[in-house]
Every structure is written in structure tokens, then in C-alpha cells.
Amino acid sequence: MDVGVQTPSSSTPLSYRSVRCRKGPCSSKQRLFPRALSTSKNIYRCLEVQRESFVNSNLCRKSVVSGCPFGAFNALSLFSKQPFKRYSLPLGALLTSITQDAPIPSLISDEKVGVLLLNLGGPETLDDVQPFLFNLFADPDIIRLPRLFRFLQKPLAQFISVLRAPKSKEGYASIGGGSPLRQITDAQAEELRKSLCAKGVPANVYVGMRYWHPFTEEAIEQIKRDGITKLVVLPLYPQFSISTSGSSLRLLENIFREDEYLVNMQHTVIPSWYQREGYIKAMADLIEKELRNFDFREKVMIFFSAHGVPLAYVEEAGDPYKAEMEECVDLIMEELEKRRVTNAYTLAYQSRVGPVEWLKPYTDETIMELGQKGVKSLLAVPISFVSEHIETLEEIDVEYKELAVKSGIKEWRRVPALGCEPTFISDLADAVIESLPYVGAMAVSNLEARQSLVPLGSVEELLAAYDSQRRELPPPVTVWEWGWTKSAETWNGRAAMLAVLVLLVLEVTTGEGFLHQWGIFPLIR
To answer: How far apart are CA 113 and CA 311, in angstroms?
Structure first.
């Protein structure tokens, strides 16, 4: 495997630059977000907001138009039945500051504004580890079983969580006995509330975790008790993925559908925000600061490590995660280049599990290959995380650092997660403010004809755009190959999984077996 190491000044085309170019005009496959189009005039070219909400504001007079190059918001044309294309247009690309066009009070009037931060969640004690893992693997967006076997989702989640719990407990014990994610996310929520207040937008900020307390359902109940009338949903994942933001939004979709209060509450979603200027500058600030700690900073390899997803999510389900991640890395390096930081850099994906193929290159394999190529100084950048948790504190700081030392890398440092970094928090506040005119509305943009339209203001429609058919993912390897190959490894994994499913079926149907004897399933007398 060849590691895609690049330098910003190199004239060689980058191996993962298909979504951007640095110079000259860009084709539809090269540049996703032309900066010339990121202005309020172009944003509002095809925008229809609720007139009754903003009829007295300057924004309404500037942005509400009756004509649209795509027609009068035809639902069939907006939400294609085809799987979501890789080069999507997230909300962040549509939004620039609207505070110059309309006074902030006119945007919020007498409404009660709420912001819902969505995150993964994490076990706070060692006793929480196994139930947390169960919640994780019981999510059909994490493990997608064929329709015939979906009734085994929870038994399989129980089986996997029990098997993985001992090793996971060791990891959490090494970082203090639990994940700091809740404390950090609560702190981010409080800082975001203060920043919004300072910018003239009083709002309540809530935290909803997908797999542990405070669960999204708990946050929604508090939102209802507080009487929130306008809600901005903000996943704390810079890049969109079906398995992260998508899973949280799908849960919200189900909650909203079953609750009359929520059905009538105006809301909008910021699906991803990796290309926002404040976020990019905050990441560049952290990288630049950490580079100063090296003896020879110009020789340091900048190593972006992102959380991986199964390759089939991208190639078969249309997950835009890979394209957004590569674009994000490009934007950060472009910002660093403006500061005359021209270090070589690369991107790899960590945290893979199971026998299927995940996004490549893999972080562990890339570290070993860089060591073999003579790289002596490495700066790890956790690009898909905005909070410290086990993937940064244990997987990167401990496991990958040890691997780097064994591979011959002499200097290893890591950029901290953004946490409550002021520039980052202020930019999130700006994103919320900029999204307020879209609450309860729908916006589309015609930057390029080939790009999918982006619905705003409906969780269900948003998910329909990203993962319209929720198709079952076909296996990544379909042809048998003899010998010790990836194909054989995959088929062996499938055979093992089939054996596990058969055992689970027998356990559930007969009420007897080793899982009952071990106390994992209750004994039936």
C-alpha cells in the first residue's frame, strides 16, 4: 500500500484532492464550494422562508423570491430516490453571515430558541462500558444486518458487547476510569450559550448523546418542558456520516414523528460544518502551535487521523464522509500554507473493527510505512474529533504512539482536540445564528447541476437526501480467492458470523446454552 504523502507546494496532483483544486478553474468533480458563490446574494437566489416569521425584517425583503431555476420547490425533484451522491452540499456551504443584512432581534423576535448538540456519548464509569457497547452495537446504522436477521440485532449486540467489554474496560481504565466526553460536551454547550448571548441571541443549549446519558430522548423532554419554539440541531461531528450524524438524526426523525409538540416545532439541521472559516482557522492554530514544539518543525509530517467507516458505506450507501474529510484536510492545509507552513502531510483512518474492509489507508499501517520511509517526526491530528475521548486519549496517545516508536519515529506529538477553544466556539455560535432564518424553511442551491439538492428544516427529508433508500450494504468482497487473502479473511469472518447467528437462534429458541449458563441470557425454567 502506498501512503498518499503530499506537500502543499507540490505540483503533483494529490491522491485525495478530487474535491478541490488550488489554482485555476475547477470542474464539477474538482471543486465543490466555489468561494465566489458563498455570498448572501447567491445563497438567497433560491430561498423561500416563511414570510410570516420575517415579514418585518430586511432579510425577508432581500431573500424571499418567487422564482427558482429548479421550479417551485417540487418535492419529487428535491428529494431524488437515487442514493446520495458523494459530492454533497452541506448546510455550512450555504451559510455566510446574515447578521449584516438583518438585525438579530428580528430573527428571534419573541421566540424561545434552543440549540441541540448531538454527540456519541461515552461510559462514565467502568460499569457503564458493557451497556454502552450494547447501545452502540444495537444501532442498525452501526451494524446493518440483512432484513432476514434483523430480529437478532439486540441479541447480537449483547453478544458482542459482552465479548468486547473486558478489553474496552482496560482502555477506559487507562484514561481514568471513564470517558470525559460528557464533561467536555457540557462545557462546550455552556460556552456556546455564553457566546450566543454575547452576540445578542439568548438561547438554551442542550446536549443529546446517542449511546449514553444524557440520551437524546432526555434532551428532547427538557426542550419540551422549556417551551422551545425554534430549534437548531447541531451535530458535533464536523463531517457528515451515516453512522454518526446520520444515526443521531434518524433517531430524532423517529422522535419527532411520534410527538405532536415536536411536529409543530420549527427546526433546522446543520448536517456538517467542516468547511467553516472559524473551524478551519482553529484547527490551523492548534497545528501551528504544536509544530513549534519540534526541534526541526519543517521536517515534521502532519498526520491527520480520522475515524474510519466501512468502505461499503461510502461506495454503496453514498456516505459523503470520505469526500468531506478529504476536503476538510485540504482546507486546513491551505490555511497553513497561507501562514507559510508547508510541511508534508497525509490522511489515514483509524478504529476499524470486524472482517469487512474499511476506508483506507489505515492509521496503523500508515504509521509503520512512514517509519520504513524514514520519517522521524510525526504530528498526529485527530481530524474527526472535537472532544477528547478514548480514540484520542488511548488509541492515538498510547497505541499509535507505541507503534510509531517501534516503527522508528523519534518525535511524536498530538494536536489536542478543539474542546472549548474560543475561535471554535465563536464559529459554532455564528453557525447557529446564520441558520436561524432557515428554521422552518427549506433552501436549495444550484452551485452545479450535478450536485444533489440539500433540504434544510426537515430531519426526515435531510436523511432522505443522504441515504434515501437505506439499502442493505452488499459484501465488499464477492469472489472467493484461495490462499491467505483479504477475500479469504472476509469469508472466514462471514462463516464465523453465521455460526454466531446460528448459536444465537438456538439459544433464543431453546432457552438453553452457554450464554444462558454464563448469565448473559436469563435461564428459562
So the answer is: 38
Residue 444: closest CA among 116, 75, 86 = 75
At residue 268's C-alpha, the angle toward residues 71 and 85, to 5°, is 60
Count how many Cα atoms sit within 13 Å of the Cα of residue 383 in the half-sphere of its side chain.
Answer: 34
Residue 240 CB neighbours (<10 A): 28
Under DSSP, is residue 39 helix (H, G, I), strand (E, B) or coil?
coil
Give me the pLDDT at residue 238, please.
96
Amino acid, single-letter form, for residue 237: Y
Q: What is the dihedral of CA 273, 279, 280, 285, to 10 degrees?
A: -160
Rounded Cα distance between 77 and 82, Å, is 11
* Residue 237: all three cell numbers together: 461531528
Evaluate the omega torsion of the peptide bond into residue 105 and state whether it is cis, within 30 degrees of 0. no
Q: Could you report the per-residue pLDDT of 20-42, keeping only the tens digit for each?
A: 333 333 333 332 322 222 222 22
Residues 516, 525: Cα–Cα separation, whole Å: 11
Chain centroid, CA 316 distance in Å: 18
Task: State the pLDDT at residue 446.
Answer: 30
Instruction: Please name which of 113, 98, 115, 112 lies closest in space to residue 57, comparing C-alpha atoms.
Output: 98
Q: What is the pLDDT of residues 48-66, one digit of tens each?
A: 333 333 333 333 322 222 2
How many whole angstroms separate alpha carbon 432 and alpha carbon 200? 12
> Which residues make beta-bridge pairs with 346?
303
Per-residue pLDDT tens over the stretch 342-392: 999 999 999 988 778 999 999 999 999 999 999 999 999 999 999 999 999
112 CA to centre of own chain: 27
Contacts 24+ apart (CB under 8 A), 482-487: 486/357
Q: Residue 362: is it exposed, middle or buried by C-beta count within 10 angstroms (0-12/13-18/19+)?
A: buried
In DSSP notation, 59-87 reads: HHHHH--S--TT-S--HHHHS-SSPPPSS
Contact 337, 8 (CB under 8 A): yes
Q: Residue 521's pLDDT band (boundaries 50, 70, 90)?
A: low
% of the chain at pLDDT higher than 70? 65
Burial (0-12, 13-18, 19+ Cβ within 10 Å), 235: buried
Name 358's bridge partners.
310
Which cell numbers hold the place of 243? 453512522
Positive or negative, the CA dihedral 78, 461, 310, 351 is: positive
Please state the length of the chain. 525
Measure the CA–CA gap between 486 and 401, rounded to whole angstroms.
27
Least confident of 167-176, 324-333, 350-359: 350-359
Given a contact cutoff of 8 angstroms between Cβ atoms, the answer to whether 319 and 247 are in contact is: no
Query: Residue 99, exposed/middle/buried by CB under 10 A (0-12, 13-18, 19+)?
Result: middle
Q: Which three cell numbers stand for residue 121?
A: 456519548
